[in-house]
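Hi V.,

Quick status before I head out on leave. The structure for the redesign project is tokenized and pasted below; the design run finished overnight.
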């Protein structure tokens, strides 16, 4: 049985389909990237899988199954039980998703106590341990900080730490490196790959960077205008695909001294 199966879904806002006939199947510990330009429907797909479609968006055809069970009819309570332990999500700029008037620790403790019946002191200790596990030195000081006091890389690590608190089976990552400098991007990518090694976490990565996708992924789905344009293993996408759009994405990866590092 697949961990996540998206079966021929169409996602619409009002009468206008944004994503059409999208299918994907993934197993435990697998890393799949959704690649494409802005507006291609990548984020819409993973938000649908997480039950977080904004602005009245709905899955109007098809089904989304997590461990064989359809999530489309889940109640708020059932989603609360699934999120955190079954699946979790990190956003493009985790700092932007946090209330700038609240300290990181307040948000983190609230998140932990939503999923677990423990005291504030125990939740604080757990939060600090997770931050330090994600290579944020002095987790106690990070907990006392406001989001705007942290660098982009630190904020993203906070987001990953929160998402991995309960070692979910599936992590959905929405452009996790796009707001970061190149050095920090590389660190975050390596750290996400370590999550699979340490916890066996399956990861769906949304990115416009085919270089990042080829480095991380077992399987790549190329999207364009809300549809699947191309898909296959990393080696297929890199060396065998004849799709014109895929070739354009590969050509867009920067090269150094005539060598393209994908």
């Amino acid at each position: 049985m697949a961990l996540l199966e998206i079966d021929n879904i169409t996602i619409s806002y009002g009468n206008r389909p944004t994503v059409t006939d999208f299918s994907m199947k993934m197993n435990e510990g697998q890393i799949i990237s959704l690649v494409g330009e802005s507006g291609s429907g990548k984020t819409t797909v993973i938000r649908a899988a997480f039950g977080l479609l904004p602005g009245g968006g709905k899955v109007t055809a098809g089904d989304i199954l997590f461990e064989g069970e359809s999530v489309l009819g889940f109640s708020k309570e059932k989603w609360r039980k699934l999120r955190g332990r079954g699946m979790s999500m990190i956003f493009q700029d985790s700092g932007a998703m946090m209330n700038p008037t609240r300290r990181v620790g307040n948000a983190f403790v609230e998140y932990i106590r939503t999923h677990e019946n423990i005291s504030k002191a125990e939740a604080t200790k757990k939060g600090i341990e997770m931050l330090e596990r994600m290579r944020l030195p002095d987790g106690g000081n990070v907990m006392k900080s406001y989001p705007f006091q942290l660098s982009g890389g630190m904020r993203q690590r906070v987001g990953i730490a929160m998402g991995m608190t309960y070692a979910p089976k599936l992590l959905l990552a929405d452009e996790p490196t796009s707001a970061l400098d190149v050095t920090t991007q590389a660190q975050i990518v390596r750290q996400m790959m370590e999550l699979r090694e340490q916890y066996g976490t399956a990861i769906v990565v949304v990115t416009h960077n085919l270089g990042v996708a080829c480095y991380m992924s077992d399987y790549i789905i190329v999207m364009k205008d809300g549809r699947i344009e191309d898909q296959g293993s990393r080696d297929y996408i890199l060396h065998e695909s004849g799709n014109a759009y895929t070739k354009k994405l590969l050509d867009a990866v920067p090269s150094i001294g005539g060598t393209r590092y994908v």
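Above is the designed sequence. Residues 182-199 form the longest helix (18 residues).

G. will cover questions while I'm gone.

Best,
W.
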